[in-house]
Amino acid sequence: MAILVRQVLPEDADACGRAAYEAHTTVAAAHNLPSEHPSVEFSIGLIKAKVSDPNVYGCVAVQDGRIVGSVFLNTFPPEPVAAIGPLTVFPSAEGRTGRQLMEAALTEARRRGLERVRLVQSPSHLRSLVLYAKLGFTVREPLILFQGTPPAARLPSEHHVRPTTPDDLARCNTLCAGVHGFARDFE
Questions:
Q1: Are 127 and 136 spatial neighbours (Cβ–Cβ below 8 Å)?
Q2: Strand partners, 67
């Protein structure tokens, strides 16, 4: 059956959120891990935030009139860099749907002249890791998901931890640019 990939619309958010929830819970259950998406409401809220963000470009995959997946290209103006995610596909539509969505996001990145595109791979979903490698992505760092209650932090007395303030933004941007290669001051 043919899959049509088109730009996401605000009214697509609920269907995309349901696909995201089902995709994440299915992969997590297959590996006996807690899902990164704790509820369908969480997933729908995440997708609604992406759809309404002017710095995000989204696409949906439609099969037989039904949304079966989505992908989002997150940009960081004025930096020439983007991050892809989330990419989610209903498990019943896996196969070539994820590839078509990724190709649509990468085509948009090239159209915008973005120099770098990054993504974060869910540590338990090896099929998507293979897809990303086939599309030319290179593994840079492992990502491991830890869950639970962390122990109380014990910092040496010379360290002081406090909430950030607007006065910290310039230094945070310098740190971000040094670590990641781009600033995030628009956020």
A1: no
A2: 62
